[in-house]
Amino acid sequence: RAVCAGFINQPDACKGLAEPHPVLQKINQASGGVSFTSFISTLLIIVVVAMGALFLYKRSLTSHIHSALREEVMLEVQAQMDSYKKMAG
To answer: How far is CA 30 from the centre of its chain?
Structure first.
């Protein structure tokens, strides 16, 4: 193709080489991009998965905070009970 590009008047042998190969034409025609509906549906699926992950994270965090608060209250109660026993004893 490079040799044929140098001719002003191309010979018959070069005319077939200047056109792209049929396989490349099919690839170019097939790559039209993503349709609008598949883009929106994929975006919607991503949003739903992200919202589910955030919900599970919130639930886990709430559970962790409740258990930490419960443990802190129990430690405070035990400390107050120990100081009361020292006063009584």
So the answer is: 26
Q: Are 28 and 34 in contact (CB under 8 A)?
A: no
| Contact in structure between 1 and 15 (CB atoms under 8 Å) | no
pTM, two decimals, is 0.52
Distance CA 17, CA 6 (A): 13
- Do residues 33 and 43 make contact, with C-beta atoms less than 8 angstroms apart? no
The parts of the chain modelled with pLDDT lower than 70 are: 1-2, 16-32, 89
Please give the C-alpha separations between residue 12 and each of 19, 22, 55, 76, in angstroms, as whole numbers.
Answer: 13, 19, 69, 97
- How many other C-beta atoms are found inside a 10 Å radius of the C-beta of residue 55? 10
Taking CA atoms, 44 is separated from 34, 38, 51, 83, in Å, by: 15, 10, 11, 58
